Amino acid sequence: MSSLSRELVFLILQFLDEEKFRDTVHRLEKESGFYFNMKYFEDSVANGEWDEVEKYLSGFTKVDDNRYSMKIFFEIRKQKYLEALDKNDHGRAVEILRNDLKVFANFNEDLFKEITLLLTLGNFRENEQLSKYGDTKSARAIMLVELKKLIEANPLFRDKLQFPTLKNSRLRTLINQSLNWQHQLCKNPKPNPDIKTLFVDHTCGQPNGARAPSPVTNQLMGTMPKVGGFLPLGAHGPFQAAPAPLNTSLGGWMTNPSSVPHQAISGGPIGVTAPNGSVASMLKRPRTPPSNNPAMDYQTADSELVLKRSRPFGISDEVNNVPVNILPITYPGQSHAHTSHASDDLPKAVVANLNQGSAVKSMDFHPVQQTLLLVGTNIGDIAVWEVGSRERLAFRNFKAWELGACSVALQASLANEYTASVNRVMWSPDGTLFGVAYSKHIVHLYSYHGVDDVRDHLEIDAHVGSVSDLTFSYPNKQLCIITCGEDKAIKVWDAVTGSKLYTFEGHEAPVYSVCSHYKENIQFIFSTAVDGKIKAWLYDSMGSRVDYDAPGRSCTTMAYSADGTRLFSCGTSKDGESYIVEWNESEGSVKRTYHGLGKRSVGVVQFDTTKNHFLAAGDEFRIKFWDMDNVNVLATTEAEGGLPASPCIRFNKEGMLLAVSTSENGVKILSNSEGIRLLRSIEHRGFDASRVASKAPVIGAFGAPSSVAGSSIGFTDRNAPVTAMVPLIGDSRSLPDVKPRMTEELEKSKIWKLTELSEPSQLHSLRLPDSLLSVRIIRLIFTNSGGAILALAYNAVHKLWKWQRNERNLTGKATTSVPPQLWQPSSGILMTNDISETNLEDAVPCFALSKNDSYVMSASGGKISLFNMMTFKTMTTFMPPPPAATYLAFHPQDNNIIAIGMDDSSIQIYNVRVDEVKSKLKGHQKRVTGLAFSNVLNVLVSSGADAQLCVWSTDGWEKQASKYLQIPPGRASTPVGQTRVQFHQNQTHVLVVHETQIAIYEAPKLDCIKQWISWESSGSITDATYSCDSQSIYACFEDGSVCILTATALRLRCRINPSAYLPSTPSSRVYPLVIAAHPTESNQFALGLTDGGVHVLEPLESEGKWGIMPPVENGAGPSANPAAASSDQPSR
């Protein structure tokens, strides 16, 4: 079906809804498959109208379309089955089982058998998994939450959950416009024509009674051009969960490849197959009505006065007054842009001035942290700014990291002039990386770890000459970076390894910009060249699918609206004419051209989009704004003056802030009222060094040599010296005054102080209820779902606490506000490890949890046991001692492979499926006490009681490196002390926990980046772990205290004294032995105590986090020197 016919269906849906034809509306929704009415679906589920629910779903998906669809139908039919059982209607339940649920037996026979067994129970709630099933209403509500998530994730529902934005009674408006047009074409128009039908074209009768033939002969549908679809793009391998539909929105753009072959050289397979079928030819643009009659007044869809303007032409009251709803009626999913947005929503108030020091060329706001701004300049400088505090967090000059590895052409260019301009900066979609495209060959990728922690990641010698643009994409769920350049090529690189995956060639001029996108499971790239040509590419070797001219053959950039549904471009031609347009993707034509851009002599106008509603462009020393649905300028601002002729602009994600470059080498931050509230909230928090690195430029952190060792190590293995986070002495470009509004008194008040919590009222703490024997907790972990805690006690018994989903805890996740249940199956059995012939004092208990929380593998000095987490039954036991297992870790890519640390100092790589030891690794001198896999580096890191670290390749299990910990002078290590390891989220940095210290090492070479020495007065460190976001480290001590450190610099930010969470019992010495971090709540952790208790701790809602980030002082950067490290510890 053509795009215009599709739009007609939406118009009819709106008309039917306004006329209250409810049943017809939903039937058309289902039969067309264009719009899934979530509200109607929810109501039907809540009312238990199961036949209607499945009938409605059938218009959009079938049971076996994909795993999301299968899960949707299964949940619905399971609920229907349970409700029949709950009513003791076993006949109906058997019917549902046979007719509706049996289809799932082909996919999971065990599950079907388990469901069938429910018929044998007097109450299905006797089944452990259904023991918390409530009443019908609450069960349906819980299921609905799950169904909505499945529908939103299902690719078959993509672009079908949002009703297009329409003005009220749009179809009636179009009919009135048509009648008005028909009347204008009359040869003998009457002042008051009598129009009584829509079935034939209107003509006014001639004076003698004869009727002139109507010049308009097409019926309504006939006036719409039939838009042909792009033939199937084929099964693009991993890019599609289901075959692409015949008509895709990209299809209209796809022309036949030109006779000149456009080669795509693959630098490495990405798993994409060539598309099947040929491509449809370019669609013709629809004709516009003839305009040779000056009296004609063709009204557009944007005309607010269409009904009023039709009256003077003499159309009778009967037709002119076709009933139109005056009060707005909102169709489900419909939003009225003209009433819900206004120019007041635009950021126009200047709230900050940032002095960058050189001319700004490109900017980008962080995708998550709304006030974090990345800036690149004309002399190659890049900086990260916190606009809320007006602080520059990080700074770096242009520099080739490994000049010797660069191409000869680049080396020659740099030898001639060692400077380069930044052409583009951009954050990756999740904000963990950012890319910089330079005017000389190079692309730099940096990893961002929060605050001021920016590290070298990749240096790519990408293009010959200037790299014009870059962007990120996720083909095959693999993060890639796309670049284009002066050498007329577009290239795709693996963002992790830097390997080249594709080269697209076909442009005849330097490529100016790239824009990656996906629609209907099709991944593609738009590219534009300086000669005004637009091309589109799929991730294959079939060449360009589009060869099209930008308006005015302009040098153009392209961008989608935030929701990905509308495509815009903006550019400037060689003669200085600028164009900003919206494209009709279905037809490959310009949908609307926006007015108001001036003529310029140099430069290319820059633009941006926000809120799916506004456009902005830097033009004529000001910022101009448009409503996307109106071609005329909505508003302008000069931002208090000082802007260049073509300022660089960038909205933040929410559209509340707008960064604008100035002619004085700075950036102005413009804000709307919502943004002002955000910035004030940041200012009122006080000095938060988690958002501030230093008051001086952090140049040393980014490659400048320094006498103090430190950390700027990225993901890659580099020979560059490790450098410190300190400013260069004598640097002429000192940091400007970036806080002009900060008074001296306010500055003095913002002196950092360690947060120390000693009272129960200063935090939230919950001791988990326990009816079993209280024995000290040796191991502790949250389940991967975050809804339960598993503990292993000294007596080899496991304890499992589960939080239930209810009105007080809607998520069902662990929380201190609601106590969990100490869970046991109805059989009453306990998960107990084998301890026969085991001396518990010598045992080193250990366990590992499967990714789906279904199984736990555990040992307490005896055989290793595999338990079912639902039934607590022992599935199997293996590997009887000696030697005894001391640590367990599942392989990240294969749950059948387990790394087992042994008390004889070996590591055994064991395959559970075949019950076979594949490899035995030897390198430690004492028992192994820690194991951690990196799925990025493909290594296993081990630690032992010998205070040694080893790195093993997971490919051949050979040892790559080893290193002993640096024990502080005068601090003897316990002969059987435990050393544990854990990988950071970046899968490169390793947290090492020893009784004397916490350290950060970098794999695979095991360079010590940072070391934090504990105070002897606090006793030994008993355990430590990363928070789930790897931004903090939680550490517990023998004196009962808990310390929260920054993960970047290992600086103490908060100390929790035992009096804050433990009752006052002077006779007993209670302290935490183990600590575990929640998998999704970064400020929640749990402690396992010597008295057998388990406590969950969270900060107060008013604080939201544990303490305030300490400032990074000069000379106090990360250090590999234990002496230097110990000197920066704050006193306690």
Blueprint (SSEs and pairs):
Layout: H1 3-18, H2 22-32, H3 38-46, H4 50-57, H5 67-86, H6 90-101, H7 109-117, H8 136-153, H9 170-184, E1 264-266, H10 306-309, H11 317-320, H12 337-340, E2 349-355, E3 360-365, E4 372-377, E5 382-386, E6 391-396, H13 408-416, E7 422-427, E8 433-438, E9 442-448, E10 454-461, E11 467-473, E12 480-485, E13 489-494, E14 500-505, E15 511-519, E16 522-529, E17 533-538, E18 548-549, E19 555-560, E20 567-572, E21 578-584, E22 589-593, E23 606-610, E24 614-619, E25 622-627, E26 633-637, E27 649-651, E28 657-661, E29 666-671, H14 673-684, H15 744-749, E30 755-757, E31 763-767, E32 777-782, E33 788-793, E34 798-802, E35 821-823, E36 846-849, E37 855-859, E38 864-868, E39 874-878, E40 885-890, E41 897-902, E42 906-911, E43 916-922, E44 928-934, E45 939-944, E46 948-953, E47 959-964, E48 980-983, E49 989-994, E50 997-1002, E51 1007-1013, E52 1021-1026, E53 1032-1037, E54 1042-1046, E55 1052-1056, E56 1072-1077, E57 1085-1089, E58 1094-1099, H16 1122-1127
Parallel strand pairs: 30-55
Antiparallel strand pairs: 1-14, 2-29, 3-4, 4-5, 5-6, 7-8, 8-9, 9-10, 11-12, 12-13, 13-14, 15-16, 16-17, 17-18, 19-20, 20-21, 21-22, 23-24, 24-25, 25-26, 27-28, 28-29, 31-58, 32-33, 33-34, 34-35, 36-37, 37-38, 38-39, 40-41, 41-42, 42-43, 44-45, 45-46, 46-47, 48-49, 49-50, 50-51, 52-53, 53-54, ...
